[in-house]
Amino acid sequence: MSKTNKLATFFLLAYTIVLLLCALLSESTYGGGDSWMHYQMARYAFKHPELFLDQWGKPLYTTLASLPSQFGFIGIKLFNIGCAILSAYFAFRMAKNQFEKYQWLAVVFVLSVPIYFVTLFTGLTESVFALCIMTAVFLFHIYRVQWACLVISFLPFIRSEGFLFLPLFAIVCIYYRRWLALPFLTIGFLVFTLIGYFFKGTWNWVFGTNVYLTKPTNYGHGPWYHFFEMHYATFGWAYSIFLIVAIVAFLFRFKKDFRNRELHIQVVLLFGGLVVYFTAHSYFWYKGIFGSAGLDRVMAGVGPCIGYSAFCGFQFIVQQKFMKYKMAKLILVAAVIWLFIMPRYVYAFPFKYTGFEQLEMDAIEFLKANKLENYPIYYQDPFFPTKLNKDPFDEKISLNLYQHGCKSYKPNSIIMWDSRLCPRESMLPISVVEMHEVELLQRFAAPDEYNLNDTMEVRIYLTK
Questions:
Q1: Which of 323, 346, 369 is at the close of a domain?
Q2: Which residues span the domain enclosing 10?
Q3: CB atoms within 10 A of CB 132
Q4: Rounded to an integer, what distance in angstroms lies between the CA atom of residue 287 and that of residue 220?
Q5: Cα gap 344→240, rounded to integer Å
């Protein structure tokens, strides 16, 4: 085994160990309710097959995550870690053919992207989305163009933004006259359209039931430069600097060797994917459309694109004449070390319960101590059915307050009312709950962790 392969293997194993420790030691997760919901949909999809075609949960993600999730939330975290390690491996394989030195550092660059690193301990879709991109790009790199187009055609069924990547692959195929590969870009859409027609009875279910197209967003909107402002939490300063260098490098290399195939892969498929994705989300948030909430975590979907593009910037610096000086080398080493520790600098690992989640856990412990955990529960925060190990899609044992609406509550049931989500998501202030025949069993309260002048609370009611 060559030195390069040994170093790449070492870092892949090192990151695997670090990621596993973070996953095993974390009490909570990143991404809040969405993280728990994706996990729940994957876990209970076999019991409720309609979840496999749920557009919010994303059909292909739910299908791929359904088996790992049977081992609990730790199963979904290990699944995401496996996706990340495989993405980093593909990045290394490409780097070996594209660069002469330090190819093993592609692993570090891909796995150290702060927002990408943090989502690996969640039930979110971004890591699988990123793996699909890297798999397709790698297949294109090794001249399996039709397979690359086939894989990327399924990307929209992991996250809706996947449609943005299809034109990029089409452009490269057209440039290289790979006409036979173009129809493969439609296969994912055709397969899921056919499946949806068989089970839902409509040809237009892909767009007709997409929650981001059919429902107005209520998250507001913000400035077009929002994600530029958030770069310290998504990219981090080190990546931002290397990406700026990468832009210079791409322009310089295009002028020197416009027809270079590997350069097209780097610029169009990876960096181009990052630019299109970043621009689209900036526009969505600016206009307040397609369910955009301006969340920084969406950038994790192109985490490997960020990492590999920054790695191209690093390689450009390495090739410059001034790198023969010791001071320049020391600065570069310091920058790489900065990359390595960046995720821990931006986010605290392992994840502990937030102050609000600790209140919710106190409420759950109260239920268990008083033998109430087997009662049917009404809830808004999916944290509750997850920690109580209840099927949230079985209305006999758990009911979502938002879906329940203003209907009467079943007698001898538990209402888990929380001050953070119930008033906002289910439009259920405490006054409305107490209009019904309910008994307050316990109240848990603490100063709000984000506003000490406010109070966060969780109340447990028994319906009569």
A1: 346
A2: 3-346
A3: 28
A4: 9
A5: 17
Residues 368 and 315 placed together within one structural domain of the fold: no
Question: CA angle, corner 247, sides to 105 and 185, nearest 5?
Answer: 80
Neighbours of 280 (CB within 10 A): 16
153 and 254 fall within a common domain: yes
Percent share of the chain, pLDDT over 90: 41
Q: Of 285, 320, 346, which marks where a domain is finished?
A: 346
Alpha-helix runs per DSSP H in 257-393: 261-264, 272-287, 303-318, 326-346, 355-369, 383-387
Contacts of 383 (CB under 8 A, 6+ apart): 33, 36, 357, 360
Geometric angle at alpha carbon 89, from 29 and 144, rounded to 5°: 120
Could you read off the pLDDT of 175-194 as tens digits, one per residue?
999 999 999 999 999 999 89
Residues 321 and 458 in one domain: no
* pTM assigned to the model: 0.91
**Residues 6 or more apart from 391 whose CB is under 8 A from it?**
44, 47, 385, 397, 398
Count of domains for the chain = 2
Assess whether 331 and 386 both reside in one domain. no
